[in-house]
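Data deposition worksheet. Section B asks for the primary sequence of the deposited chain exactly as it was used as input, without tags or linkers unless they were present during the calculation. Section C holds the resulting structure in token form. Section D is free text for depositor observations; keep each observation to a single sentence. Incomplete worksheets are returned to the depositor.
Section A, Depositor: J.P.
Section B:
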Amino acid sequence: MENESSIEKNVVNSPTPEKEGELCYAEKEDHGEQKKTLRISEESPNPGSNEGLDVSNNQVDVSKDLVSENKKEMNQDDLNSQVAESKELVSGNKLDESKELESENKSEIYQDIKETLSEDKEPEPVFDGTEISGMEASRSMSTHSLDLDTETRGSAWPEKAVALKNFVKEKGTVAVSSVLRVLSGKTDEDPHAAQDDEDKNDKGVKEAVDSPKEGEAKEASQKPVEWSAWNPLNYIKISREEDAENRTEQEETIEEPVHPVGMKGRIILYTRLGCQESKEVRRFLHQKKLRFVEINIDVYPSRKLELEKIAGSSAVPKLFFNEVLMGGLNEIKGLEEAGKLEEKIDYVISEAPSFEAPLPPLPGEDDLSSSGAIDELAAIIRKMKESIVVKDRFYRVRRFTNCFLGSEAVDFISEDQYLEREEAVEFGRKLASNHFFHNVLDENVFEDGNHLYRFLDHDPIVLSQCHNFPRGILDVKPKPIIEIASRLRFLSYAIFEAYISEDGKHVDYRSIHGSEEFARYLRTVEELQRVDLQDMPREEKLAFFINLYNMMAIHGILAWGYPVGPLERRKLFGEFKYVVGGCTYSASVIANGILRSNQRPPYNLIRPFGMRDRRAKVALPYTEPLIHFALAFGTRSGPALKCYSPGNIDQELVEAARNFVRSGGLILDVNAKVVSASKLLKWYSVDFGNTEVEVLKHAANYLEPSVSEELLELLASGQLKVIYQPYDWGLNC
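Section C:
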């Protein structure tokens, strides 16, 4: 019996490998003591031969002999009948059906793996203004320490679970309601104030979850609003039907946009940066509703010589009605006092300009953005794209689109540049360091072998989401980042001075869109594609990314329109991007990844940069809390727009903080013992302190000395009540 058991075990555990499509036949006898096992393999090098069937026959014969020895009471004819049925199953139609079913299953599994393990990355963490009930905006407001022991962390998990549950419930409710709103063609009467008040937000979520029918009825009764594709030539339309509790005196005084007076003639105003009289003439023309073209002689230096020729002096401001020189600020005021200005205005309205009248700036005039030496490496890359195979490939059970192998690139470089293989690898690293291509997993700079790499202009995110990449990779050599940042700062200064109110709170988006300064800005940001950011000093990096963030906000609003809800804000903040130094940057990444030193956005669970993210090397070493008083993304409750310079960045940020806090960011009512604070101090509290008291103490540094002293006394007494102001997401126009 021991030998028989050993033989049976050897037959069942045959060394023949279990291939795909193997069939196992097992049956228990009524006694429950012995098993009849038949193993039949269909694996054959040639499907048309009987080789696999012969192996199966041998195994069946061995099994039959074993059964005849151990099962003498079994009828031999019955056993032969069962063996014959097994053979017929292998050689007949049932085997063919099994093969077809197996092939279909393999195809379905392969397709599922291909779809599941594709290259699609997780969306970047973005704060869209949605506050999650039970989940804190940042760690600083938590009562737990940042470094908790094991026991404390364990006790905190129920609280985190509740927060996560509320997070999912809130996001789901917002997503469903927004989709229903889009499908029905309806929006809220006030899309900006819908989520400003935290109490209202919580109540709205509860009603949406508990009473879905009531929520649907409410959606059906909402006022329909026209929603069309964004046309930058039309003034941005926003709803001003706000609740009384959210309306401020400043908003009540804002006048509706007025249309300029139509005219046949042309008004030219010569200005320069920082000129106070130029600002006053500009304001005067706006009051008269006169459309004019501004020529800043700092932006267009060649026009300085033109001004000297036609006016006899390069002093500004100088105003021209067609070819007639009206003079500067004093001359304009003199004409108005004498009652002769209206006659001049009638002339420019009714008369077309002659050939002697100054011309508006031409596209690309005095523009250095497209100049520079041709990059020889770019020519090599063009030839490389034509020679190597670029296609979708599988690597580590993931699919990557438009990739090439490192070994193929080394083969091309070695042949094209007449280099040994090791030298070709070093040359490839030089190309990668110049941001022509990169490793798809950011595992290395460049190596020989089966590593996958992708050209910058083949990256799907670059092609679909980056808006400083309209013409592909530039052929000119990348200029130093300090030089490009200086020109961008210069253009930003010119745009802010000409098209933004003096307090920085109101933006003339329509005029910006049609200006030559903005067109030049768009050409200049293309130069950021392959710049080197690694050696930027802290002050240069801080000023550069703040200015880039603010201009990206204007560019995004002009390109996509202003977002009216959380889903639109999430898209604008997270999917409108620039290519800078070979990497993609959104507004959220700049704010939270670079300027906040890779801190998670409010009400998000992950950080912008992972362990291998190349952008993490660009991030500032520590959080800069005052950036929140400088970053303006087109909202009314945000800080004022201003251009920042690296030479005096810290002092300028302190002034921005004072301006924001003293103009309503922190309001103290001593008698009621209540302080009203901007929600920026709540959302980003971790940057200002570990507790609410520390946050308020930090903000008190920027109040007037007397108010700051009163606030600190109330904080020390412990009798101060803190409320947060509703955040107005309305457009700052």
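Section D:
The two ends are 95 Å apart (CA to CA).
The mean pLDDT is 77.
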